[in-house]
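User: For my dataset I need records formatted as: sequence, then structure tokens, nothing else. Please produce one.
Assistant:
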Amino acid sequence: METKMSMFNSALKSGLIIGAASIVLFILMYVADIKPVGIMMPIMVMLASLAITIVLLVILFKKYRTQVGGFISFGDAFLYCFIAMLVSILVSTIFTLLFVQFVEPDYYKNIMEANKTWFENYLAGKVSDEQLTQTMEEMDKKAATMGSFSTTLKNLLIGTIFGVIIALIVAAIMKKKAEIFDNNTGGVI
């Protein structure tokens, strides 16, 4: 029981660290006025965030695995990684909600406006005016739902699914079983 509690506490701490790193990345992007607009920028932001998350998770997990003797089963590795990912997702979601409520209420509106401007410039001359108008109306509908409770829950669910996938991959790679001859107690002849 003590081992499970220490694993939970360590995973919780790791999740808080990863969540804090996500918050720092968000704040840096906000201060530098980097908006995830267009086609490539959202992909680049997602890849950077994913890389930071995975690197931190692996480093923190290796530290925990070393603390518990260097060996961990896949089940325990998955549980550790899943708890860390879930905590980091909750921390970053709560921060985003508070940020949008109290610091920058027009955050999503500003991003959607920048996105609309980018798409208008990108699609100008490539599609008919009707198609451009229809695309802009669809973006306005999407902007109206951003930041809503249902969208936040949907994003939380999607984040949790990605967290499970990341936890499975990291746990599968980082698990380490003790070999028969790893201990110096003799063994079977």
